[in-house]
Amino acid sequence: MRALRIEAVGQVSVGEVEDPVAGPGEALVEIKAAALNHRDLWIKLGQYAGLKFPCIPGSDGAGVVASVGPGADPAWVGREVIINPSFNWGDRDGAQGRDFAILGLPRDGTLAERIAVPVGQLAPKPAHLSWEEAAALPLAGLTAWRALFGRARAEAGERVLVTGIGAGTALFALQFAVASGNETWVTSSSDDKIRRAVTLGAQGGFRYDQEGWLDRAKERGPFDVIVDSAGGAGFGHLLDLAAPGGKIVFFGATRGNAPELALRKVFWKQLSLLGTTMGSPGDWVAMTGFTALHRVRPVVSEVFPLERGAEALALMERGGQFGKIVVVP
Ligand SMILES: NC(=O)c1ccc[n+]([C@@H]2O[C@H](COP(=O)([O-])OP(=O)(O)OC[C@H]3O[C@@H](n4cnc5c(N)ncnc54)[C@H](OP(=O)(O)O)[C@@H]3O)[C@@H](O)[C@H]2O)c1
């Protein structure tokens, strides 16, 4: 089959690889569409834990079950599915266990024509979504859902701020917050992305790359829940934007560590700083159910054929996307 491989740091190729085989309890899925996450880029750049080359990256996929391995229910064959990329979460909802893994390193991922995964990772493709939209949902939808509802416990009517709205994860946080009745604001480095966020239900947004944005944001705040994945020097500003008793939930550090945190602001304002990663099986069921109930449609920024997968990664590297970058084999 054809697959995209990362051969070594910075080296992407598309070519023939051996077909996967469904092992015991597994299904072989013909991929109709896959989607990128920032993780795939970190792997390409050599900035991810547990690197192993060559590898087929890709955590998001949607497709049709072609066959099943020994012991797997044959009723899966022919079904249209999406794949939960959160493997071996473990027994506790509060945090993943030691065997936790994300699809697409160390296990081969979805940027290929076919993939073998345990049937327990499969869920029916949401009927209201196209293949491209369905592929865009799993990892970013799961992460955003747990951040907003599982960890920050956002309630209808609360004011929510989502930073860096161009990010795939950030857009899901916006869409989920709007669907659950939250007044939602965004930040971005692009006026166009803020305009597009408003068409998705955001009240408005702030240019985090412009002088004075913090003051403008304070006028519209404070915010009960702030969802961030950028970290870096700007993270400290979020303490000023949070309402007393507010929650700042984060799952990424695209801009690196926060250089210094004003701890006095954290305890005086009774803030909660909440780390989160991916999601438990319960989060997955809740997220897919919420998406179907509210007919949330993932925002697809661009669709690339597999052969042009390297260009798709380059688009992500320059932050040119608004929403998910989809790759079709
Ligand atoms: N822990 C987990 O489970 C988990 C899961 C998913 C993602 N992540 C992490 O979360 C981050 C986002 O992932 P993704 O796949 O959604 O990324 P992505 O689609 O590549 O998003 C990148 C976006 O980050 C925003 N950004 C960059 N610098 C910023 C800054 N200084 N302040 C605010 N926003 C900034 C930009 O938004 P604008 O274009 O609007 O400026 C950019 O479009 C990555 O670090 C990723 O590794 C973690």
How would you describe what is shown here?
There is one protein chain. This protein folds into 2 domains: 2-137 and 298-328, Quinone Oxidoreductase, Chain A, domain 1; 142-275, 3-Layer(aba) Sandwich (Rossmann fold). The chain is built from 10 helices and 17 strands. Strands 3, 4, 5, 8, 9, 16 and 17 form a 7-stranded mixed sheet that branches. Helix 3 crosses helix 4 and helix 3 packs across helix 9 (281-293). 50% of the residues are buried. It is globular and about 60 Å long. The protein has helices at residues 38-44, 131-136, 138-151, 168-179, 191-199, 213-220, 235-241, 263-268, 281-293, 309-317; strands at 2-8, 11-16, 26-35, 60-68, 80-83, 86-87, 101-102, 114-118, 122-124, 159-162, 183-188, 204-207, 223-228, 242-250, 272-275, 300-305, 324-328. The N and C termini lie close together (10 Å). The chain is α/β, with parallel strands linked by helices. Helix content is 28%, strand content 28%. A hairpin with a 2-residue loop joins strand 1 (2-8) and strand 2. It binds NADP nicotinamide-adenine-dinucleotide phosphate (NAP). NADP nicotinamide-adenine-dinucleotide phosphate binds next to helix 1, helix 3, helix 4 and strand 11.
